[in-house]
Amino acid sequence: MPYGTLPSPLDEQTWRSMPAAQQPDWPDPAALERVCDELRSYPPLVFAGECDNLTARLAAVARGEAFLLQGGDCAETFDGVSADQIRSKLKTMLQMAAVLTFGASVPVVKVGRIAGQYSKPRSQPTETRDGVTLPTYRGDSVNGLEFTAGARVPDPQRLLRMYNHSAATLNLVRAFITGGYADLREVHSWNQDFVRTSPAGQRYERLAEEIDCALSFMRACGVDPTELHRTEFYTSHEALILDYECAMSRLDSRTTRRYDTSGHMIWIGERTRQLDGAHLEFASKVSNPVGVKLGPTTTADEALTLIDRLDPKRTPGRLTFITRMGAERIRDLLPALVEKVTAEGARVAWVCDPMHGNTFTASTGHKTRSFDAVLDEVAGFFDVHRALGSHPGGIHVEITGDDVTECVGGGFGLVAEDLHQRYESACDPRLNRSQSLDLAFLVAEMYRG
Ligand code: PEP
Ligand code: MN
């Protein structure tokens, strides 16, 4: 039976005996158990065969033959699940991918932080405002953003809403992707509501014209491959709330291997990658492609242990290291990791998250990032990999399709005083559409070298 799934036997839960960081303090464990039983009865959101296809695409990234574009919100919200918002995120990713594919002449693997990115690790368990201290917001999958005692109580019913909102999002993404919206002939229409106002939009319009010319030339030559009319787009999220991820895991009936069917790719965050921790144990038992965030404290020995635990068979595409060192430190810290991993013979995909090492609080009190620092970290990432002969395999970015004002700099030169105008992120600041396209053009130039 191709692509079938069997319910997961409950005994495959070795992670439960290990410390699990960043888990909510659910007030009623029995209510959580009922929710997990319900989730176990639900259909998978993605199929094992799709996850394997993504592993094959990421293997090309690891071999140096493709580039990963992974992006989306820091935190999806239930309110953000609307046709307009999903379309605008997808459109931005498709535009960035067109810029990178055409500008850098490299196949681009497109993976959204979407349809499941609802859970957030936090540096503090509580938050204080005007003398009032409440539990911190841990993502819409756990509690509410609103600063009231009621909203901040973890509610397991939210895990069911996460499943349903992920399913609705994925359904529309699949419809757009297979229904003609992602056809390269639409390369102009993705830009329609944007071009007049933005320098990045105008630059994009010129690139779209070149793509059009290339397509017309190919058609005139009698070449019109189906690859141009549809694309692949995969989902990913941080596998943070292990009760949810475990309840969504299934055995694939073709291979009897286990998959986390909540998304195609999962990653382990900087705060949950402990070598003796539950997150690593859980991820080691599922066959999805797995990413691990590596921050500035990561040692080369830790990286090697992560490889042994997550990719003992050294399967290219299985493991992606997403480095997030900060612009000022990447040139110093990344070489030792890459050298040791390469010397060990492991073929991981190296990807740069230029967001999380570059967050600061602006004079206005907003959590922000500067476009220049983001760009500088990507430049450092390219410098290091070029110097060592390894492949700069991709970028992992927090972006949105809307004209928000959350990061400073970029084409419009946003400054701290602009941030209040449209600051909408439920968690970390995202590049807006214009900053995202700016970044794609600059990364394409770096890739070309
Ligand atoms: C994130 O990707 O939103 C995140 C929390 O990242 P990190 O684990 O790298 O801090
Ligand atoms: Mn984030």
From TrEMBL:
It comes from the Bacteria. It holds the Pfam family DAHP_synth_2. Its EC number is 2.5.1.54. InterPro entries: Aldolase_TIM, DAHP_synth_2. Pathway: Metabolic intermediate biosynthesis; chorismate biosynthesis; chorismate from D-erythrose 4-phosphate and phosphoenolpyruvate: step 1/7. One of its GO terms (molecular function) is 3-deoxy-7-phosphoheptulonate synthase activity. It catalyses: D-erythrose 4-phosphate + phosphoenolpyruvate + H2O = 7-phospho-2-dehydro-3-deoxy-D-arabino-heptonate + phosphate. Transmembrane segments: none annotated. Keywords: Amino-acid biosynthesis, Aromatic amino acid biosynthesis, Transferase. Belongs to the class-II DAHP synthase family. PANTHER family: PHOSPHO-2-DEHYDRO-3-DEOXYHEPTONATE ALDOLASE, PHOSPHO-2-DEHYDRO-3-DEOXYHEPTONATE ALDOLASE 1, 2. This is Phospho-2-dehydro-3-deoxyheptonate aldolase.
